[in-house]
Amino acid sequence: MKTTRLGIILVVSVFLAACSDSTPPPPPPPENTLADKVSVDSLPLKESFSILLAGTLVGKLEVEHNAGITLVDFEFRNNGRGPSIKEKLKRAENGLPSSWTIEGSTAFGNKVDEHFILTGSQASWKDTTGSSSTTLAEPQMYVSQEASPYAIWVYAQALLADDDHSMPVLPGGTLRMDSMQQLSLKGEAAEISATVYAMSGLGLNPTYFLLDDNSALLAIISPSFALIREGFEAEDERLRALATEFSAQRFELIQKNVAHNFDGPIRIKNVRIFDPATQQLGEPVSVIVSGNKIEKITPVDSPALAGETVIDGAGGSLVAGMYEMHGHVSQNGGLLNIAAGVTSVRDMGNNNEVLSGLIDKMKSGRLAGPRITRSGFIEGKSPYSSNNGIVASTEEEALAAVRQYAGGEYYQIKIYNSMNPQWVPAMIAEAHALGLKVAGHVPAFSNADAMIAAGYDELTHINQVMLGWVLDEGEDTRTLLRLTALRRLPALEMDDPKIAATINAMVEKNVSIDPTLAIHEALLRSRNGAVSPGSVDFIEHMPVGIQRSAKTAWADIATPEDDKAYWQAFDKIIETVKLMRDKGIMLLPGTDLGGSFYYHRELELYQLIGMTPAEILKWATYDMAAYLGQEDMLGSIEAGKYADFFLIPGDPTKDLKAIKTISMVVKDGTVYFPSEIYPEFGIRPFVTAPSVQQLEVKEVL
Q: How far is 516 from 256, CA to CA, in rounded Å?
């Protein structure tokens, strides 16, 4: 598994993400701004686009326009999976969709059968969340749930023809389109001019895309993915860099609005500190922050000093910043993790160049984000490769990748699905000799027992361990089988000798595991039309697009037997993780879902294996700091340590759900109030901010 986006796990959603109407203003538009009227007469009858991931071709999108009908064929594959979508779209004279049929499957296999029809003023639609209809008082555009990225062009035509380039849409929300920049692109046959636009309205972040002078789609761009018209693939790197910069500008503006760096010391008054040593909240105190460190902890009634900023904790709980141990860091997720009290993330594989640039922006203060511990991603070359990090074709290349990651910037290497298992022992020996830890998936055609024997320090995802107990020899886990085979788990008996052998080997070799329970719950227990269990506590606060996604299954659950098997598979996972904990195996809290709200759910799920809220808090803070060797400066609230902590009104040692109502986060001495952050993403806040008083320099209390 590898995902990076909140709420919508399909990789295609990178293209279709959108933000709220509270998006900060874009850079000034060029002189030739949005067109008043769109002409589509010059559109070619056929259009072809390449799907690129970090420069690697992973799929195609083909479009055919014929007699007022648009046909779309979209497919890509990365990491052994991807969506397959076919569409038939008819637009009315006003440019809005009058009928739209979308069929196929999502990246994880859920069947797509979406229909929209407009008859007169009556609009009706069916998607994976259910069916609905409405009578329109005026023309309104339907926004699809599962369409291909070409839907961006459909929406753009309607918005370009609208006077203010903004309109309410079905089934809810508002779309807006802003002109960002004009530029020229060099193709194989010619150089053409284009305009970059940002579309926002239904999700959390804008979608950046390019139209040529005829308003035809030229590209849809993000920092890692790009959809580009055939013949212009050479512009991929430049366009992805442009998307990165536009995104950075957006988050830089948000950072200026929500990051508070007060002059003089900060006093967080009247708070109860969670002590990981005792797993209890202490008596009310005040915490003094100077710069990026905790200066001292004083009695709650100690006098304030001149020039202090006093933040009233109102008797709430102060907890050290938490560790997300399975992240794939992006610009989009940095601030949302901060708002969720996640101030440290272990990145488990990324585009190395993109992540390096992001870390530089965070260190400079340009962008907000957690402290990042890096893993060096190494994949084997195959038709199913995940195009991240370094992809090796030979054992020599794999060893060279290990050496490239050594030298202090990386904590460990992470081995992935397509790696030749015969190369792994040498890779581990090289990594350990160079001071690197080793974690990873179980390479295809091997099992966890072999990786433990080879010297893994840590196994990634609980399914990677359990598949070795249910797969037949020769079955290929580079495909969706590594997920769909989980329906076999209910047949396992926990006293099976092969289960005991694996777990005992983990104990003997001191191998830890990053189970990622939340993503397994989403995979196994999400159902079409019902809110996913992991989203229940926050989904009503989200934009409409995220709410729709939370009511969509991941897997193809075609029969009642599938429904039962997938549901019970999660019970078997919980049973296995509990057994591991009882045996003393080190567990690590990570989501592979982007952290943030899903990190809260990840922690909550460990109550199912018998952990108390207080144990979980200690584990997510101090224990993870110690696991990464960072406990001297992080993991607890003590004088001299970094000022990384969060404030909640309730008592999380009694009810862990209290961490879902964070009122303030301090990261590296900078103060954030989630109630200010969330509206920037179209999210309704969960709790108000504490009161803040800045004392005059001459004043002494």
A: 34
Contacts (Cβ under 8 Å, ≥6 apart) of 77? 58, 59, 384
Question: By C-alpha distance, which of 560, 489, 555, 488 is closest to 528?
Answer: 555
Helix (H) / strand (E) containing 225: strand 225-229
> Whole-angstrom Cα distance, residue 549 to residue 546?
5
Pairing of strands 458-460, 437-440: parallel
DSSP string, 361-426: HHHHTSS---EEEEEEEEEE-STT---SSEEESSHHHHHHHHHHHTTTTEEEEEE-TTS-GGGHHH
The CATH number given to 321-632 is 3.20.20.140
Nearest to 153 by CA among 105, 91, 204, 93: 91
Between CA 595 and CA 448 the distance in angstroms is 26
Encoded tokens for 478: 């580079």
Instruction: Report yes or no: 175 and 169 within 8 Å, Cβ to Cβ.
Output: yes
- Strand spans (E) along 237-330: 266-275, 280-281, 285-290, 293-299, 309-320, 322-327
Structure tokens at 99: 């009928």
| pTM of model > 0.85 | yes
Nearest to 142 by CA among 168, 119, 121: 168
Q: How far is it, in rounded angstroms, from Cα 23 to Cα 208?
A: 13
The strand ranges marked E within 106-224 are 111-119, 122-127, 130-135, 141-142, 166-170, 174-186, 191-200, 207-212, 217-221
CA dist 53 and 41 (Å) reads 32
What is residue 147's three-state secondary structure?
A: coil
Length of the chain as a residue count: 701
DSSP structural state of residue 86: E
Structural domain boundaries of the chain?
A: 24-258, 321-632
The whole-number mean pLDDT for each consecutive block of 10 residues of the chain, a chain of 701 residues, reads 38 34 38 42 83 93 93 94 95 90 94 96 95 94 95 94 92 94 94 96 90 95 94 96 93 94 96 98 98 97 90 98 96 94 97 92 91 97 93 98 92 98 98 98 97 98 98 94 95 96 98 98 96 95 92 94 97 98 98 96 98 98 98 98 98 98 98 97 96 72 39
| Contact call for residues 50 and 74 (beta carbons, < 8 A) | no
What three-state secondary structure class fits 524? helix
β-strands 371-380, 410-415 pairing: parallel
What tokens does 556 get? 């193809």
**Torsions phi, psi of 388, nearest 5?**
-135, 165
Whether residue 171 has a cis bond before it, omega within 30° of 0: yes
d(CA 96, CA 224): 31
- CA gap 274, 280 in Å, rounded: 6
Q: What is the per-residue DSSP string for 317-376?
A: EEEEPEEEEEE---HHHHHHHHHTTEEEEEE----HHHHHHHHHHHHHTSS---EEEEEE
Exposed/middle/buried for 490, CB within 10 Å: 0-12, 13-18, 19+?
Answer: middle
